[in-house]
Design a protein that fits this description.
elongated, binds heme C, mainly alpha, 9 helices
Length: 168
């Protein structure tokens, strides 16, 4: 993890300029390499989140199922669709699908999915109405103000060193 050398200075600067500490607007959905729909797979078909997001130990990241696991269904389902043919191509060559990230933190922020899920936070609190979306977009504010608002609401620590490593 990168350390924040000028952490305190940066924070003062942000307070003055008012950038980053303000809530950010919901960003538009990025163009994805395959037209995958959460609404179809989780809303209609009711595949569980963990079916594609396994959260392997130590649990920091959720991970996204690879093309080969999609093909457990799609070797038989919709094989004539151009989108599924793209998917089959990735599976055949063993290439990772270049999904465009929707929520992504800078490397100087500490975050673990496992600790949040263990303490009772739900996917929806941080990612919104995934089951109703054809395309995901950043609909929940997970910039610093979004993290801190929930920590305050749930009486969790807002100490700088909880989320950042300080260095003098
Ligand atoms: C407390 C807030 C929070 C909760 C609860 C949460 N997420 Fe996340 N999620 C995040 C943040 C923040 C990121 C970006 C993390 C990063 O870039 O390091 C993220 C990233 C992801 C990613 C992509 C990166 C990765 O970790 O592989 C997936 C997939 C994901 N979340 C799915 C889920 C699912 C499914 C659930 C429920 C089981 C869930 N999340 C619960 C905040 C949360
Ligand atoms: C449990 C089985 C199952 C799994 C696993 C699965 N899908 Fe699907 N997928 C379906 C079904 C069923 C449909 C809807 C077919 C229809 O419209 O009749 C579908 C539809 C699609 C479509 C739309 C195709 C079109 O042209 O209409 C895409 C794209 C797709 N899936 C991608 C994926 C990807 C990527 C993964 C892996 C991350 C995946 N699927 C995993 C069952 C599955
Ligand atoms: C059939 C497989 C599948 C299931 C089931 C599934 N997802 Fe996903 N998920 C994906 C794929 C593929 C992507 C990458 C494309 C995208 O962002 O839409 C993704 C991306 C995400 C992301 C964006 C992560 C980032 O930062 O880029 C979040 C958040 C997420 N899923 C949450 C969920 C939640 C919550 C559920 C359960 C309600 C769920 N997913 C169920 C396949 C799945
Ligand atoms: C939905 C509410 C919620 C959101 C949003 C949230 N958190 Fe948390 N977070 C919690 C709770 C609850 C705890 C546990 C407090 C305790 O120990 O009981 C926690 C604990 C933590 C911890 C300490 C445990 C560990 O994993 O080391 C860190 C670090 C953390 N959160 C970082 C973040 C960051 C970074 C974000 C924003 C990207 C964020 N949190 C967003 C609710 C939230
Ligand atoms: C609950 C987690 C959390 C806590 C507590 C927290 N931060 Fe952050 N901080 C973040 C996240 C997440 C970002 C990244 C925001 C982004 O770029 O989306 C961030 C970004 C920053 C940045 C980068 C500059 C910027 O403007 O984006 C600075 C500086 C910073 N934090 C300082 C602090 C200081 C000082 C404290 C203590 C008063 C603190 N943070 C407490 C989560 C946290």
């Amino acid at each position: 993890m990168k350390r924040l050398t000028a952490l305190a200075f940066g924070a003062v600067l942000s307070l003055v300029t008012g950038n980053c500490l303000l809530a950010q607007e919901a960003a538009p959905a990025p163009q994805q390499p395959i037209a995958f729909s959460h609404k179809v797979h989780t809303g209609t078909l009711k595949v569980a989140c963990k079916g594609c997001h396994a959260n392997p130990d130590p649990g920091e990241t959720m991970t996204i199922a690879d093309a080969a696991s999609c093909m457990k269904c799609h070797s038989a389902i919709k094989t004539d669709s151009p989108e599924i043919q793209k998917l089959a191509g990735y599976a055949k060559s063993g290439t990772a699908i270049p999904w465009v990230r929707v929520y992504e933190l800078p490397s100087f922020v500490k975050f673990s999915h496992k600790t949040h899920i263990d303490k009772g936070s739900t996917c929806g609190e941080c990612h919104g109405q995934v089951q109703t979306r054809d395309q995901l977009f950043r609909e929940i504010n997970l910039s610093m103000s979004g993290c801190v608002d929930c920590h305050n609401a749930k009486k969790a620590s807002v100490d700088c060193t909880l989320c950042h490593e300080l260095q003098n």
